[in-house]
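Support request, please re-run this one:
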Amino acid sequence: MELRTVRGRAATRALLRIAPRDGLHGKAAFDIDHLVLPAAAGHVSVDFNTHRVLSVSGAGVGFELIMEAASNYDTLVRVAEDEWRYLRFSSQVTIAIRVLRGRGIEESTWAGERHTMATLQFAPGSVVLIEETNDATPTARKPWSPPSFDVFAAAMPEVKPEHQAAKQLASYIMWSSIVEPSGAVQRPAMYMSKGTMTNVWSWDNCFNAIALAQLPELAEDQFFVPFDAQATSGRLPDSVNDKVIDYTFTKPPIHGWALMALFRAGAVNDEWLLRAYDPLQRWTQWWLTERVASGRILPHYFHGNDSGWDNSTIFATTVPVESPDLAAFLVLQTEALSEIASRLSRPDEAKKWATVSSSLLNSLLKEMWDGSRFIARKLDSTVIESASLLHLLPVVLGSRLPSEVFNTLVSDLGRFRTEYGLATEATDSPAYIADGYWRGPIWAPCTALIIDGLIDGGEEQLALDLAESLCAMASASGMAENFDAVTGAGLRDRAYTWTSSVFLTLAGLLAAEERTNDPCAGV
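Re-run finished. Output below.
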């Protein structure tokens, strides 16, 4: 078993390996907080005591902790007869190893400035604690006590019987990806995964917050994680973790949409709205000033990463790009600011933001609707040809769109639809790639945005059908980062939180719809 870290942007995630002395015999068994490594003469148990401490014990068999150097400074230091510190410089982590029962035998090779190899061997019956002991001072605004998995899972939406097993998996992925406040992360934060994506990106967090509506304090924490790192200009970072705040890129302004979704779910009170109002204003104003080019009307993305659709074909030939989704998101965000200002008894501000929202919608339709589709364009107004689903994301505006525009978008979704959902690049496009990231695979977040717009525009059945397709796919293929649009197979990171969150939100929607249509359902 490999013990890994999610700290910072460590060059090496692996910390050490735990193994029975006579080797692994058979498949490891595990549940929420317990892992069993079978051996020929017994087994080794690994128990996760807290989010920072685990214990290892051997029943009928000894075990060893194996540490292989990955940098010039990885060092194992014996500080007492029964205690060591492992300075894992390559992973930016210090590990305390304490023997509670038995004794450890060290075998190591010192090479002047590091241990190239170090092994601690323990006899059968030994018990050892392994603890992360970094002395980084958290900047947390409040103490944090992680919820138990049972409490967390019970707060997730009710789902239909065929989605129960996937609900358990999704809930576990989300729960296990919450990290404590530390360094640049000022509150409990749900990372995108504990595999390859150990950050909070400044739109991923919105989908996670929505799924946590029944845990409003934790939902609020997820919403505000990027706002804690908001620049003085109003810009949000691209991503944040405990060690690094990255402002190289940013992410799309879906936060007003997410806040209103949480408000409708009953998770947001007026105090929360008050805390959100000024940061949301500054974030919105940044887009409307810093990202509107001279002589232009609508904002643009510097790079595909700013849109969240990193390598979409809309960005294949040039940057910057005026993309229709950006204006659509800002229509919703300025509308949200108007609604919040009204609730906060600020009528002049409510009127101002309502005017901005209306003006943005009119400009989107005038500048980017060509009579049959929404276009993307260069800053000289040259149209960019692309078969990306990104062109259809203004459907998120739902009933705000003229009926002929909305109906055309609904019809055009058919080109992207497969048995499993909506491909991000039309499958008949020459640029379609099965595992092409945003050039083909199905992604949960854009599916959620489209479904929300379809419901608002009166296309409930299509919305429910798309929700059913995604939930069935995730139930069969797991909570992958994205999915092959033709086969439904999971791709890239296989334990992703925004996929889990969208699955739970949509599965909850399907269950609620079933209860509405059949009052006896589940009785």
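The first helix runs from residue 149 to 154. The first strand starts at residue 2 and ends at 4.
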